[in-house]
Batch of 4 targets.
Target 1
Amino acid sequence: QVQLQESGGGSVQSGGSLKLSCAASGDSTNCMGWFRQAPGKEREAIASIDNKDRTTYAASVQGRFTISRDNAKNTLSLQMNSLKADDTAMYYCAAEGPSPATMWAMMCYFGFWGQGTQVTVSS
């Protein structure tokens, strides 16, 4: 089991930056990632990182967002720069593992989820 808690969301103007953090507890996992879901849209994977720090990004955030993890502190981060109105969504931290809510994305089965943190970008 893995417990995840996001923080760092908020409101920002277009072109601004935010950094999301995710505190993890419980079992260690290989893959961790960030997903987002905008109203009326499906949840989408935007960035993932494995325990060798290999990263994968969705095309929509490539070059603007940076995912990182600190295994000693059990934290996952997402630095978001050059934010756009289209980035407005609920952002979720996720970790690999089996659960009734497992989702396959970026070569990992993500089964543990945080509660989400809202990011709103105004144009």
Note: The longest strand covers residues 18-26.
Target 2
Amino acid sequence: HVQLVESGGGSVHSGGSLRLSCSASGIAGTLTSLGWFRQAPGDEREGVARLYTTDGDTYYADSVNGRFTISRGTAENAVYLQMNNLRPEDTAVYYCAASDLRASIHSASTWSYWGQGTQVTVS
């Protein structure tokens, strides 16, 4: 049973920083894609960032490019999201996602595994 667990959410003022962490269990081997999505109340789930473990390639949504950084954790299939210069529009529930294949943040259906989410509030 695959399980992704996020941590590190919270409340910060505009311009502040947070680092989200995601740990994975129940997975044999290394997942190909690790990513982060977010969903604000009343909005659709939005892809934020993704990393391919095969080559380290990263990709960011335009809305966070230059402010957020996705990176691998020390544990296998662990992933971080460093969020700097946070804005009120970044307020959302943030979800960790993973896939055995090369997935896209433009299509949530390409991701196989999801965490339960962690709340980020920027005021």
Note: The radius of gyration is 13 Å.
Target 3
Amino acid sequence: EVQLQAFGGGVVQTGESLKLSCVVSGYTFSMHVMGWFRQAPGKEREFVAAARSGGDPLYADSVKGRFTISRDNNANTVYLEMNSLMSEDTAVYYCTSSFRPITTIESNPPEYWGQGTQVTVSS
């Protein structure tokens, strides 16, 4: 059974940092494209970042330069380090996993999703 468990959400002030983690099990982690999506209240779900083993990561324009996705294949864990947080970053963040190519992740929803972790940025 494929499982993704996200951790690390919380409440921070504008300009502060937060690091999310997602531990996965049930499949060969290194073969999947790992990603993060988010959904803010009243808004559609949106792509945040994605990473594949041995390749360049992909970022949404809104987080480029502020967020960093990384993965530890030995620990079956993907991370999202978020710096210079803004109120617009407030959302539920979801960890995702996909067999599809990284270039399609924005248009084709990943096959596997975690339960989500709340990130709230207050001004």
Note: The mean pLDDT is 94.
Target 4
Amino acid sequence: EVQLVESGGELVQPGGSLRLSCAASEDMASSYCWAWFRQAPGKEREAVATIFGETDISYRANVKGRFIISKDNAQRTLSLQMDRLKPEDSGIYSCAAASLSSYGTCDFVRGHWGQGTQVTVST
């Protein structure tokens, strides 16, 4: 079972940047879907950015143009570059890996998750 460990979360001022990393314990080709999720206090967890296969990427509308997700198979690392951060970007960010379900969707419910890293955007 793949183990995922996130790093890079910290306190940053609005307008600042952070780069999150997620180290995978095994070959990233073992999972088709890779994603960053976040959860703010009192809110449901939401997908921020997802990579399908090697090239297809989707972003949540309110981070598009500010966040970039990338995957380095050789380093077994999933990254999230976050620029022009806003207070509403605060939360626990977790990386996840999943296979495709029989419906052709990413089955993160049965996927692998890291413990998360805290991002706080505040003055």
Note: The chain has a mean pLDDT of 95.
